[in-house]
């Protein structure tokens, strides 16, 4: 399956987001990763729904929305998404996850389910029919610039194996958090498909976005 790059907009130059988006288009980025945080599910507040709807108007790159919010079902209808966008909620963020995944499916976009480092992959076993993408968090969510947790590679490998066993091998696995060049290469070999790129590999002080994206693509080959 083709490896995909998802640029984490919270790491972009927020004082000139349009320029960053245009450069990401030139770099051939596959998704724009938009982190939405409520200050409660994670102790941080970042990008919001108005930004999602504004970004939709200025680029054709599909959105990869990462909702780190409690009770995401309350907010699903605040975003104008299309069929190629992914709306990802956290397994840990709501009691009736199945119902919320159904709401997202009915919206017509792709569904994502994220699991924090401590959440077993097995927990999603009965929900696979509702999930297009499994987001295996490689850090505890909420902040950029963290270090990948020690069991990340083993967990991605296990996730790929379980998805095969459950006959849903076409489900994409995304990884998010400290996806550096070496971590990207290792996680790709473990079976990851989509790589959320932030301060570890894409938004760097000494390299353009285009060059950084090229370098990352090279390690996936
Ligand atoms: C983590 C965020 C990501 C990512 C940022 O909650 O969802 O956007 O960590 O990239 P890094 O980890 O490379 O700074
Ligand atoms: Zn994220």
Mean pLDDT: 97
CATH class: Alpha Beta
CATH architecture label name? Alpha-Beta Barrel
Which regions are unreliable across 5 or more consecutive residues at pLDDT < 50? none
- Taking the alpha carbons of the first and last residues, their distance comes to 12 Å
Number of domains: 1
Give the helix tally.
Answer: 6
Quote the CATH topology: TIM Barrel
Shape: globular
Q: Roughly how much helix do the residues carry, as a percent range?
A: 25-40%
Radius of gyration: 16 Å
Number of strands: 8
Derived structural class = alpha/beta
Ligands present: D-xylitol-5-phosphate, zinc ion
Order of helices and strands: EHEHEEHEEHEHEH
Task: Give a short account of the largest sheet.
Answer: 8 strands, parallel, barrel
Enumerate the strands of the largest sheet in spatial order, edge to edge or round the barrel.
1-2-3-4-5-6-7-8
Report strand %. 15-25%
Q: For this structure, what is the CATH homologous superfamily?
A: Aldolase class I
